[in-house]
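Notes from the 1:1 (GR / supervisor)

We went over the backlog. Supervisor wanted to see one worked example end to end before approving the batch request, so GR pasted a single chain during the call. The sequence is below; no edits were made to it. Supervisor asked that the structure be written out right there so they could see what the output format looks like.
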Amino acid sequence: MTKDSLFERYQAAHTAHRTHRDTCTSCTDTSRCPVGQRLYESFAALQDAYLNRLRQERR
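Structure output shown during the call:
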């Protein structure tokens, strides 16, 4: 997986999470529906992976 691919996946996950959050009547800042939780966890994992890759490249 290239860095650009990881960045694109991270950004797509962010967009999916944000779109869901903006339309879901169950999700709040502190509580998420099952779909919202899955989307958030996917976004957070990809964000962590991307940021860790950037940190490794700076070493």
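Supervisor's comment: The first helix runs from residue 3 to 23.
Batch request approved.
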